[in-house]
Amino acid sequence: MSRLWRDQIEVFLAPERVDLVRSARGFKPVQSAKVTVLCERVQGAPIWESALRQLEEKLGDAAGTELAVTLSNHFVRYVALPPQAEITSPEEVKTYATFRVREVYAERVDSWILSISEWSPVYGAVCAAIPRDLMARVEDLAARYQFKLKEIEPYLASAYDRWQKLLRGNKMYFAVIETGRICIALSVNGIWYSIRNQRILQNAGDELLAALDQEAVLSGNKEAIELVYMFAPEHPDLMLPENCGWRAVPIQTEQIPALAHYPTVPADYARMNQCLA
Questions:
Q1: CATH of the domain at 30
Q2: What would the pLDDT profile of 46-81 be if each residue is shown by its tens digit?
Q3: Residue 127 domain-assigned?
C-alpha cells in the first residue's frame, strides 16, 4: 500500500486513558470520531502497562495503517541542554545529553532511550528520556500488526511544536497540564533554561502556581507580572488567582486547533466505560 493512501491512527497514551483518532487517506481525507478508553493501572506493573494493553485491543483490526503515538508526560523525563559552542557533531550531542540526564537521574538513564530536539550550539536543545521497555513494546506492537510507525513523540514536545509560532516574548513559560501532571518549560532569549515535570498531588491550580513561583526564583529574574502560555484541555476551568504575579495566556486553539487525539475532558464517561466492559 502506498504511504500516500495509508490510513493513519493517531494515539494519545496516558496512564489511565487512551485516545484514538483514525483518518482515512485519499482525495477527500475523512476523520472518524474520536475514541477514548479509560483504564486502571495494573498493580506492580509499569504505569504504561494498562494503557498499552487497551491500545493493542483497539488496534487489533487496523493492520496496515500508519501509527503516530503521543506519550503523556507521565511517561517522559526532560532535561534542558544549555548551549555549548564546542559541541557540533551528533555523537558529541548524544554524549552531552547522556551526561546531563545522568547528572539529574543517575543510573536510571540506563533504562531510557534519549530523544534530542534539533541541536544548536547557540540555543542548545531539549532532551526527552523515554522508558526503553515502553518504546520496545510500541515498536513490537507495530511490527506484529503491520503498522507503519510514523512517530513516537512526547506530549510537551508535540504541543510546543504545534503552537510555537504563536508564542511571544524573550522570556517564555510554556505549561502543559494534564490529569495528574504539570509540565513547565522556560526559555530565555531562545535558550531552554529549565523543564519541570511533576505530579499533581492535590489541587492543580495551587500546585501550578507554586511550581511557577519556584521556576521564577530559580531563573533569578522574576518580573512583577510574568506570562505563562498554558495548554490544559483536561482542566478547562483552571485559572490562576488575581494579583498572584502571573497572567495565564491560554493557547489560542481557534487559530491553530489542537490535534484531534489530544486528551480532553471526557464528555460521556458512561459511553467510554462501556468500551472497557
A1: 3.30.420.10
A2: 999 999 999 998 887 777 789 999 999 999 999 999
A3: no
In a domain, 244, yes or no: no
Residue 251 resides in a domain? no
How far, CA to CA in Å, does 35 sit from each of 9, 26, 28, 176, 268?
11, 22, 21, 22, 11
CA distance 47 to 167: 32
Q: Is residue 51 a part of any domain in this protein?
A: yes
Q: What is the pTM (predicted TM-score) of this model?
A: 0.91
Number of domains in the chain: 1
Mean pLDDT of the residues in the chain = 90
Pairing of strands 8-14, 66-71: parallel
Q: Is the pLDDT score of 108 beyond 60?
A: yes
